[in-house]
Each structure stands twice: as C-alpha cells, then as structure tokens.
TrEMBL record:
Species for this entry: Mycena rosella
Origin superkingdom: Eukaryota
Pfam families, alphabetized: Citrate_synt
Listed name of the protein: Citrate synthase
CDD domains per the UniProt record, alphabetical: ScCit1-2_like
GO biological process: carbohydrate metabolic process; citrate metabolic process; tricarboxylic acid cycle
Keyword rRNA processing found: no
Catalytic residue list: H300, H346, D401
GO CC terms in record: mitochondrial matrix
NCBIfam families attached to this UniProt entry: cit_synth_euk (TIGR01793), PRK09569.1 (NF007128)
Length: 464
C-alpha cells in the first residue's frame, strides 16, 4: 500500500483511505478494539505519507524565550484526540463541544453526551452507534472491580491525605495487573504493543469510579460503597458510587463533566506527562498516575478546588449578595496579595473557555437561581476588566475550573478537595486514547534537548 501511495496517480486511492479514516460515523457491528485494528494500518500509512511529504520541513522558529517560558507555543508533540484553538477552544477529533452534545449518543431520556461515545470518538474519530456505546458501558462495568490490595491501600490512607494523592497511589498500584507490563516481560513484538495498551486503558477507565467512590466515601465518611450496576452507563455508576445516583440532574452533569474535561490537546501538564511517561513504555497505569500528579497542581486541575475555596472565602468576607464594588475589591486584594485569581487565564486560550460556557448553559437550564451560580456570573462580569487593568495575564477570561465547583456544590457535592479527582477520572479518557495510538504508531521515547544559560550565551557569542 505504501508504494501505491507514493505516486500522484494514486491520490484517489488515498482519498478512499482517508474517507475510511475520517468517516464520521462508526461502521455498525464492530467493537472498539476491532475498529481500532482496522484503523491502525491506515493511520500507519498516513503518518508515513505525512512524514515523507513534510518530514524535513521547518515548523516555525524556536526563540530563546520559549526555553525559559515553559515552552509556550513550541510545536513539539503529536496529539490526535483533540486540538485547541486559542479563540475557539477545544475540538475533539474536529468536533466542538456543542457538536459533541448534538452528535454523540445519549442515555434514554438524557440530553448530555455519554462519555463512552466521547471515548470512541477520541480513539477513532468516529461517532459510535447507540449499541456500541451501550456495549462500552457494559464492558467497563465488567472490568470495574479493583484488586483487594488496592482497596486496602485506600482504606489505610489517613483522611487528611489529599484525595488526589490517594488517587495517584491507587492508580499506580493498578500496575500490578498490567497487561502491557506482562506482555513486555513475555517479549511481545513492538507491532503488538497497542493490544495490551488498549486492554490496560479500558481497565483503567473502568476502575476509576470504584477508586474515586472509595476515596470519597473514606475521606468524607459518606457510608458504604454500593456495587456497580452493569445495566447503567459509566456516569450513572460513578454518581451512584458517590451517593448521587438518584439525582437525574447530577447524573446528567457527570455525563457533561466527563465529556468536557476529557482532553485539551497534548501540551497541558496532565496530558503531556502521561505521554512523556508512556514514551518510556511505562504501562498506562504508571503513565496516568503521573498525569494525575500533574493535574493535582493548583495552576492546573487543582484550580477547580481553589476556585471554590476562593469563592467561599469571598462569601465569608463580603457576605452573600455582595455588590460589584465589594467583589472588585476582593479580586484586587487577591492580586495585591501576590495570588492568582483561580479559574481565570490560560496558557493557550485567549477567549472564554467553551467548557465554561457549556457548564454555564447547563446551570441556566438546571439551576438558574442558585446563589453560587449567580456569584460565578457576577465574577465573570468583574474579573476580566480587572485582569486587563492589572496588565499581566495574557488571557483575562474564565477557564473550565471557574464554573465546575459551583455546579457540583449545588447538588450537595460540597467537598472541594474532591473536585480534582473528578477532573482526573475524565482526563483518563484523553490520555489513554493517545497512549493507545502512541503504541500503535510506535511513538519513540521523548527526549528533547535542554540547554544551560551558559550554553545559550556561548552559542550567541560564538555567532556574533
Ligand atoms: N490571576 C492573576 N494573575 C494571572 C492570572 C490570573 N488568573 N493568569 C495569569 N496571571 C499572571 C501570571 O501569573 C503571570 O505572572 P508573572 O509574570 O508574575 O509570572 C502573568 O500573568 C502572565 O501569565 P500568562 O502568560 O497570562 O499565563 P501562563 O500561561 O503563564 O499561565 C495559567 C496560565 C492558567 C497558569 C494562569 O493563567 C493562572 O495561574 N490562572 C489561575 C489558575 C488556573 O485557573 N489554572 C487552571 C487552568 C485550567 F485551564 C486548567 O489547567 N485546568
């Protein structure tokens, strides 16, 4: 096939292949793994073609400030599941959040997309059928049990250990039963890496509700953990394990929440860490545990906890229903205290995050009169002007974390230290989708070049 693709005469053949790769609906009667097995050879050819045509071309300049500046904007990674546009926000395999809400299968009576469908989309670029999504729900329910020793690890954690640390410990420990680690020890061929990576990824995603539920119950003394119901979808089971399964609106919120937090292209800390650690052929559990440790930072996923802490402090200081003036004063005091306004700003985005907008629309539909939702809206009217006036932040607009806590807390999930765990459950979808492809396409060990300040000075002195 590769030789056929090299000549211009064969372009129509390639177009047929491209159509097969990018057709927007999944062929019926195929499982996700079967479909992947069909797509992998096509994508291998596609990558080969792209590298042959463009591999030696420059891809923009690198300036020294990028080495010191957290590599902002440096083109350095391949990430297929999603691409982030600074103004428009995220697209999952080319689809915006509203398009995903419209196109992905829903639960009976539900309006939000099922994350099962989003995972299929991230992995294949295709919209699955309702039946395919139902099969994924069942498959994940069947894989959901966690080993007893992992339960014991969690049960022994002091409740004062942050839920994210507990989460990371448990996910690391799942590596005990990794299909990939075992296959590697058994001498699996490189060409077959993706199969056990797929199995581990499915296991990982499937086990996260039991881990998250156990942490929540242990830390916040919320009673005994119920069993997973194989007839229910992933978000319904997660909600039940947290104690909110009877609340249909909360279950819908979980479906939306997991969908929109899943992936945000490859350069953010959790996604990039997962890819980096995975590139050493660490199995998906080890790679994703590393992602979680990055997500636990306050400039990244922990910001959803920080927003609620900040809002609660604000309310206790200036009272509920405070005036815009009082809110402005509080925001300025935050900045003058040398702190960031959590939930605002972004390393890539330059407009309001569409993940914020999706949550706002959910709130307008389900909880328009909630006082915390109203405060989040009031802050939206106040903060951007202040950040612009302060003159430092490149993006004065809200990100995903500015809104999520207000929604969770409306339904009674008020324990803000737990919020990033839910972000982590969702982020597994994006990180594993890419890990599977990295193994399928034989992505190499990541090893960028670092420089010392002395080396940079010398380089430019030598050139002048
Ligand atoms: N409040 C106050 N100052 C801010 C700010 C904010 N919300 N956002 C940016 N700045 C400051 C930033 O600290 C930096 O100051 P210094 O020059 O003193 O270091 C300056 O503005 C330039 O920063 P930038 O180029 O605009 O942003 P970065 O790309 O360096 O950082 C963020 C991006 C997200 C880390 C930053 O905007 C921030 O700290 N926001 C608050 C924390 C937050 O909400 N994080 C969650 C991001 C979210 F999308 C996610 O990952 N889940």
């Amino acid at each position: 096939m590769a030789s056929v693709l090299r000549t211009s005469r064969t372009k129509p053949v390639w177009s047929a292949l491209a159509r097969a790769r990018f057709s927007s609906t999944a062929p019926k009667n195929t499982t996700l793994k079967e479909r992947l097995a069909e797509l992998i050879p096509l994508e291998l050819e596609n990558v080969k073609r792209v590298r042959a045509e463009h591999g030696k071309k420059a891809f923009g300049p690198v300036i020294v400030d990028q080495l010191y500046g957290g590599m902002r904007g440096l083109p350095a990674l391949i990430w297929d599941g999603s691409v982030l546009d600074a103004d428009e926000g995220i697209r999952f395999r080319g689809k915006t959040i509203p398009e995903c809400q419209e196109l992905l299968p829903k639960a009976p009576g539900g309006a939000e997309p099922l994350p099962e469908g989003l995972f299929w989309l991230l992995v294949t670029g295709e919209i699955p059928t309702q039946e395919q999504v139902t099969e994924l729900s069942k498959d994940w329910a069947a894989r959901s049990a966690i080993p007893e020793f992992v339960e014991e690890i969690l049960d022994r954690c002091p409740p004062t250990l942050h839920p994210m640390s507990q989460f990371s410990l448990a996910v690391t420990a799942l590596n005990h039963n990794s299909a990939f680690a075992k296959a590697y020890q058994d001498g699996v061929s490189k060409k077959e890496y993706w199969g056990p990576t797929f199995e581990d990824s499915m296991d990982l995603i499937a086990k996260l509700p039991n881990i998250a539920g156990r942490i929540y119950r242990n830390v916040f003394a919320a009673g005994k953990l119920p069993a997973i119901d194989p007839s229910k979808d992933y978000s319904h089971n997660l909600s039940t394990l947290l104690g909110f399964g009877d609340n249909a609106a909360f279950v819908e919120l979980m479906r939306l929440y997991i969908t929109i937090h899943s992936d945000h292209e490859g350069g953010n800390v959790s996604a990039h860490t997962g890819k980096l650690v995975g590139s050493a052929l660490s199995d998906p559990f080890l790679a994703f545990a590393a992602s979680l440790n990055g997500l636990a930072g306050p400039l990244h996923g922990l910001a959803n906890q920080e927003v609620l802490i900040w809002l609660s402090k604000m309310q206790s200081q200036i009272g509920e229903n405070a005036s815009d003036e009082a809110v402005k004063e509080y925001v300025w005091a935050t900045l003058k205290g040398g702190q960031v306004v959590p939930g605002y700003g972004h390393a890539v985005l330059r407009k309001t995050d569409p993940r914020y907008t999706a949550q706002r629309e959910f709130a307008l539909k389900h909880l328009p009169d909630d006082p915390l939702f109203k405060l989040v809206g009031q802050i939206y009217n106040v903060v951007p002007d202040i950040l612009l006036e302060a003159g430092k932040a490149k993006n004065p607009w809200p990100n995903v974390d500015a809104h999520s806590g207000a929604l969770l807390s409306h339904y009674g999930l008020t324990q803000m230290q737990f919020y990033t765990v839910l972000f982590g459950v969702s982020r597994a979808f994006g990180v594993t989708a890419q890990l599977i492809w990295d193994r399928a396409l034989g992505a190499p060990l990541e090893r960028p070049k670092s420089y010392s300040t002395a080396a940079i000075e010398k380089m430019f002195k030598d050139k002048s």
